[in-house]
Automatic annotation (TrEMBL):
Active site: 224 (nucleophile)
Taxonomic lineage of the native organism: Eukaryota, Metazoa, Ecdysozoa, Arthropoda, Hexapoda
SUPFAM superfamilies from the UniProt entry: S-adenosyl-L-methionine-dependent methyltransferases (SSF53335)
Name the UniProt record assigns to this protein: tRNA (Cytosine(72)-C(5))-methyltransferase NSUN6
UniProt family annotation: Belongs to the class I-like SAM-binding methyltransferase superfamily. RsmB/NOP family.
Organism: Frankliniella occidentalis
Gene3D superfamilies reported in the protein's UniProt record: Vaccinia Virus protein VP39 (3.40.50.150)
Name of encoding gene: LOC113210285
Binding site for S-adenosyl-L-methionine: 85-91, 109, 175
PROSITE patterns linked: NOL1_NOP2_SUN (PS01153), SAM_MT_RSMB_NOP (PS51686)
Length: 308
């Protein structure tokens, strides 16, 4: 079993009994504690979990595609890993577990409050190989710097934080800021201007990742959205722009991923779309038997190898 526990988002849909009202929570005397909404049954059929289901410090709840993401990066003990948009650290801590706490993970995020959460999570889970920094990852490379040969896997070299010299990471996870439209519906939050601003930011982060990656290194790009411009569009752009990159199969390939060519909007060739993993929420199937095993949030994962 993965060190972390996956759960799909349909857990939240179903019948519930309201035990404490919103007004009582926010305008009350502060004495209303405990369960506010009792879930009696869910559309997925998944049972609701008791509050103390997970002993603190032993595991983290994550959706299935997020767990697959760590497996696709496939970090090895002793390697130097960069997690470019790391907070609150769900994937970072998974990577640390996969590395048995050996090697170095540099975790960056531009949100100071979220980096604090990442640090708390690392402490709670006894993660010891993560160095975290508040940083705009677009600026995490300095092309003038050179990594000393003996600094290749030396925590001291990385302790001072970004910017780093080019070509100093074995593997990089770019779990990009995205529109999040693969998550549970949050239609009231959709802002077209914000969505349009994301691909340019994703491209800048990607470009920095390519510079920071060693020759022979692995770069995993992921989002929790279903927007083509943020997924296949970024892969197309990256393959056209960086001849040093090869799209390689994202594995493990689970039966959950959407396996139909038309889902990829002709942005990728047939051989390219076979390499990426696209998870699609299959709402129409959610009442069928075992639906909760196949259904996931919308998620996209692509794996690249830097050839030179
Ligand atoms: C999808 S979330 C990351 C989730 C995280 N990987 C996890 O599994 O817990 C995207 C993150 O990107 C961060 N972010 C957005 N723009 C950034 C930038 N320019 N540099 C670094 N982090 C950024 C956000 O603060 C947010 O925490």
């Amino acid at each position: 079993m993965d060190p972390q526990v996956g759960k799909n988002e349909h857990y939240f849909e179903g019948n519930r009994i309201l035990l404490i009202t919103r007004k009582q929570i926010f305008c009350g005397d502060g004495l209303n504690r405990g369960v506010a909404v009792l879930v009696t049954d869910t559309t997925s059929g998944c049972p609701s979990l008791p509050l103390n289901f997970i002993e603190p410090g032993t595991a983290v709840m994550q959706n299935l595609p997020s767990i697959v993401c760590g497996r696709v990066l496939d970090p090895k003990p002793g390697e130097v890993i960069l997690d470019m948009c790391a907070a609150p650290g769900n994937k970072t801590t998974h990577l640390a577990a996969l590395m048995n706490n050996m090697g170095i993970i540099i975790a960056l995020d531009r949100s100071a409050s979220r980096i604090l959460k990442l640090q708390e999570l690392c402490k709670e889970l006894s993660v010891t190989n993560v160095l975290s920094f508040v940083c705009n990852s677009v600026k995490s490379v300095n092309m003038q710097m050179k990594i000393p040969l003996d600094g290749q896997c030396d925590p001291q070299y990385f302790e001072t934080g970004p910017p780093f010299s080019p070509c100093c990471f074995d593997r990089i996870l770019l779990d990009a800021p995205c529109s999040g439209l693969g998550q549970r519906p949050k239609l009231d939050h959709i802002n077209m201007k914000h969505i349009a601003s994301l691909p340019p930011l994703q491209k800048k982060l990607f470009e920095t990742a390519v510079k920071l990656l060693k020759a022979g290194g692995i770069l995993v790009y992921s989002t929790c959205t279903v927007v083509v411009e943020e997924n296949e569009g970024i892969v197309r752009w990256a393959l056209d722009r960086f001849p040093c990159l090869e799209l390689v199969p994202a594995e493990p390939r689970l039966s959950y991923f959407a396996d139909s060519e038309d889902l990829f909007n002709n942005t990728l060739s047939a051989s390219e779309w076979k390499c990426v993993l696209k998870f699609v929420p299959s709402v129409s199937e959610s009442f069928e038997e075992n639906a909760c095993e196949r259904d996931t949030i919308g998620f996209f994962i692509a794996r690249f190898k830097k050839l030179m």
